[in-house]
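Action item from last week, closing it out:
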Amino acid sequence: MPPDPADDLKILRNRTFDEIAIGDRAAIERTLTVEDIQLFALMSGDVNPSHVDPAFAASTRFHGVIAHGMWSGALISAVLGTRLPGPGTVYLSQTLRFLAPVRVGDRLTIEVTVTARDPARRHVTLACSARNQERTAVVDGEAVVVAPDQHIERPRTALPDIRLDVAGHDGVERLLAHVAPLEAVRTAVVHPCDAPSLSAALQARGAGLIVPVLVAPRARLEAVAAEAGLDLAGVAIEDVPHSHAAAARAAALAGSGEVEALMKGSLHTDELMAAVVPAAAGLRTKRRISHCFVMQTPAYPRPFILTDAAVNIAPDLEQKADIVRNAIELAHAIGVAVPRVAILAAVETVNAAMPATLDAAALCKMADRGQITGGVLDGPLAFDNAVSVAAAQVKGIASPVAGRADVLVVPDLESGNLLAKQLMYLGQAASAGIVLGARVPIVLTSRADSEASRIASCAIAKLLAHRYRLSPP
């Protein structure tokens, strides 16, 4: 039986030679950052300007900085040493072919597959590959290792925090530690019929976050699991014919209290929400349903919430008021007692020709009158004034929110989605996504989200579900 996909979060476990079969596979994902290139150059001494000098790299045939080839090779070593066979593995040989460049922002899936076994010497041969987010092969090769003969199980070693010109991310680890004392939450995972969403559900189970109920066609689930090398043993499955039925059945399970959270799989967001929103589903509350990103970026000193970038396309004033209330509730749940809420617009002054500024002013007055409670609101604020004390001072803005916002409320979905993705892909922000305003938290992740993002989203859902037991929304 293959190891649980979430083992690498806290515990390292190996597989002995006798437990390894031809065809066994293991994989990790890693997104290349500028810091990865810098650290590899520092460690190896390879300061080839193709890797570390953007001006020079732009003149090469690759038209930009690329990763050291052996960075990908090091990731193969990581799979062998931590996943398959795992701790106790001894490297004997490795061949590599470099097929395509790896650029900053590329997300690689590094996979090893057992192709041969030598019982006399406990030698295991594994095919090795790396593919980017477009499924383009960038590296392939073959490794030969000596597999361990004894079980090893060790806590993952905490490495020193090495920082270059940006801060590191430890938000997921802190979040997992915070929710660890809480029991796992029974969660309907809606149509997880691709490897990323099914793997995410199993990883969240392994991390003690959820007890998954997979709502999907059983045959498709089993085919995906077999293709991805995932183990469905002991996982509850609600067999339904298609994604529409999966959404409806999951909403019914939540409405009847049989599950305490929902998690989006490989179906479209609209399809899931269409099953949640109708009154007949029994999941509506007095508030508008809205989405929040919890984000952390090296350029900002604290985690913050960005809303709404996924559900409400062009919210009116009343809908924005509920979006703010939901965000304040989430801020309380993650430990911010009095969140500072910045209502964003293009400018920081009220302008009758710019509706977003009028809504911002009205929301602040609603807070003054007690219609929105639990936080400190200010707006309109331009983005720079909301997150930079220096920018606010230059503009002469005296505000308890400006430069120190805990919550960023965007004017509409388009601006929010653009801002969120800019922060993720250019600002190296870690993120978790959650839907509030329903009777249960809804984990709403994208197919492009990283494993860490999916795990963090489940951790927040677990936190909210326990909060809802004591104080239903």
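Closing note: Residues 7-155 form a domain with the Thiol Ester Dehydrase; Chain A fold (CATH 3.10.129.10).
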